[in-house]
Amino acid sequence: MERILVVDDEQSMREFLSILLRQSGYAVDAVAGVGEALRKIKSDAFDLIITDLKLPDGNGLEVLEEAKKNDPDAQIIVITAFGTAETAVNAMKKGAYDYITKPFLVDHIRLTVQKAMEKGALSRENRELRRRILTSGASGDFITKSTSALEMLYLVERVAPTGVTVLISGESGTGKEIVAKRIHELSGRKGRFVAVNCSAIPEGLLESELFGHQKGSFTGATSDKAGLFEEASGGTIFLDEVGELPLILQPKLLRAVQSGFIKRVGGNREIEVDVRILSATNRDLSAEVKGGRFREDLFYRLNVVAIKLPPLRDRRNDIPLLAHYFLEKFRVAFGRTIKGISPEVLRCLDSHDFPGNVRELENIIERAVALESGEQLSMKSLPDYLLDEAAGGAPRLERLPEDGVDLEETLLNTELHYIREALGKTGGNKTEAAKLLGLSFRSFRYKLEKLGIS
After folding, report:
1. Using an 8 Å Cβ cutoff, are 208 and 227 in contact?
2. pTM given for the model
3. Are 224 and 266 in contact (CB under 8 A)?
4. Class of domain 313-390 as given by CATH
5. Contacts of 170 (CB under 8 A, 6+ apart)
6. At a CB cut-off of 8 Å and minimum separation 6, what does 213 contact?
7. Which of 141, 153, 225, 366 is deepest in the core (most CB within 10 A)?
8. Gap between the Cα atoms of 434 and 446, Å rounded
9. Is the predicted pLDDT of residue 138 greater than 70, yes or no?
């Protein structure tokens, strides 16, 4: 049962909150001051602490700080009748989940407590997963400390033993096959992990590769051959780039998913296969369904559980972690004595958008380790396109959002930003600002008038 500590000097408030929270299924302790609260926090574990701000022997922020020091995953809600914006900001900066001013609605406090508990549970799950990853390599080669990626890995751990089909989506280079292998490793299945890239096999050979063929079923079929589904029986088959599967083959895959039976090309016998089916795509398969390029019934059969891998640009705090991981990997592989990565290189990597994701970063570090002659990876070992970006030759551009963009407004805001930057750098000297922007003074003055800048 989840435990809550209530800290309030008003007995009526302590009793009210205790009754309310116990009715909601929580175990509740209640104390009247900072000293009692600190002793409780040191001796007992609490999932949530609700504390008044002004207390007879101190301040609720002292309770907050001690609770966070004792358990970083504990959630704290500060309640007070003395609410100010400054106090609220201070509480949130110190780690409070929320800040509520008296009087409050009962439904509001119930919902806030529920949300705080959910956040605390997720935080503990992430911390435990991170611990297992660091101590036992539980993520395979999926290296991360990003919250979004850790949540994805936690989903992998939950779904792996179930046997359901999983559709893994994400951009090229994000690690879809690594995740598929991890699901297989955690599934408990004793058979092989068989990966097939549906886009790499010619359409005329794909059916035979997947389902096998009988001798004489086509020119060159000189003997019976088991397909990849049979080879994966007892294990897992991973259909990479499943969105590339020709429409003519999709009904046969659907039947295999639904029934667990296949037929070889040219054969009449039903062959039972005990195989876990994982698939991956870098396409939007729901859009492919709407466009008539992918069967809707097959999509839903493959997509029982969806796992989406975040691109590397959305997990930038993983870039130095991955860079050092790949440095160690290739340092050992190449027998090099490189000891680290220069700060300049790390800054350069952090400023890059990585359209090729983790695979691109791995290639960059592999190349750098091969070429580096010093004790640290330096800028001279990076590929030219990164050096051009670092020199300002190719500024990083934002990617087009899914729901589009107002181009005119975006260009106007960009223009306004650079004009103000130029004026700031030149102390308001319009002639010098125009030079910085590569404009004639007349053009610059026209833009100032158009944008309403005096």
Report:
1. yes
2. 0.59
3. no
4. mainly alpha
5. 176, 280, 282, 308, 309, 310, 311
6. 221, 224, 225, 227, 264, 265, 266, 267
7. 153
8. 11
9. no
